[in-house]
Amino acid sequence: MGDTASRALPVQDARIYPRGGLDVLSRAEVARLRDASSGGMHELLRRCALAVLTSGSASDDPRAARDQYPGFDIQVQQQDRGVRIDLINAPAMAFVDGEIIRGVAELLFATVRDLAWTAIELGPDCADDLDSSDGITNAVFGLLRNARILKPADPNLVVCWGGHSISRDEYNYTKQVGYELGLRGLDICTGCGPGAMKGPMKGATIAHAKQRRGKTRYIGITEPGIIAAESPNPIVNHLVIMPDIEKRLEAFVRLGHGIIVFPGGVGTAEEILYLLGILLREENAGLPFPLLLTGPAIAAPYFEQIDRFIRLTLGDAAASRYEIITGDPATVAKRMVAGIRKVREWRIAQKDSFFFNWAINIPLEYQRPFAPTHEAMAALDLHHGRESHALAADLRRAFSGIVAGNVKEDGMRRIEQFGPFEIHGDADMMQALDELLRAFVQQRRMKIAGEYRPCYRVVT
After folding, report:
1. How far apart, in Å, are the Cα atoms of 137 and each of 3, 44, 248, 449?
2. In angstroms, rounded to a whole number, what is the distance separating the alpha carbons of residues 76 and 44?
3. Are residues 279 and 329 in the same domain?
């Protein structure tokens, strides 16, 4: 190992040998893995690996780490006994006394594993399989199984959604809720980044230690377009990189036994609309799925505004699928425990698995990847009179496009080239959307640091 310099930031070379899913491979599998990593996915692997090696970074600019470490590279080398990962000019913050931090190494192995699996198992030859709802669900299942996430056990996994840019009071509250969940034996799954994605895990670690729980799961689910802006927080001990945002959202819903939503911005709104749109389908009417919206007492106006927007666009039926609780972490945890108990009873009665929710119906329109071009954003059908689940799907896409313009490199590039996205729809809906987005900007929920420049324009 040797030290070099890059823009005055300390870097280091390293040679590491993967474990966990990459340690027992045939020669043919190693060759396919190396071909995938050295081919068209190399730049993607480099970008995601750099995000992992700078885990804990406070920046949400996806280009920041690349600019700081322009000489960084990663190579997957074939050996008779498996694979070797070579790091060139890697960030020194990922090392201690010349050795890579164990948790960082595990996340790096997960990155190589998931990107290679996607390139090999979901490549062009699988295009037909990914054109059906069942085929996409099977792909989500396969990736989670390959990541060794699916564990037959009693339901206890709570998915926590919320913003990466939140206030200190809101962050402390997410820790308190995580602590109460951990005391009750619940594990945590988040989007793996900072803010409301880190807080519940941090609180749960203390509670799990108090309860002497030896095997705990802090699962982070991300996707290539967003990992560079929301690098994994250090508590994540199971990282999964899904191919796109739609498969990431499906993984949350299939994997979790209940969902808690903390304050957030457009990404959090996208997640809420995705889930509500699914739960509003007739096929899912009787499906138990605990959904709690919560934050400190000062966040009550935030949730009131979210609730008004949902009732205006999707109706009171959508609002009936969630409960809002503010300022009471213990009650949130108790409600979640009660909700998961109902999930367990229902799945036993329906003979559905505890580790993967096969029964929930997710239509193809929710599974197909949405490319947020200017034309696609302007063409979204945001008008009253549509079925609520169909309107929710397009509303979700609108927020997804704004997320792309805010923090995804491709989206940011489109905005720089063609200007802000335009969003059209019924006047009252557009006014409510504009008010909601303006509130996100004023509350600094769009960006961690620096002045926010809107990537959208709501046409009222």
Report:
1. 45, 24, 11, 37
2. 13
3. yes
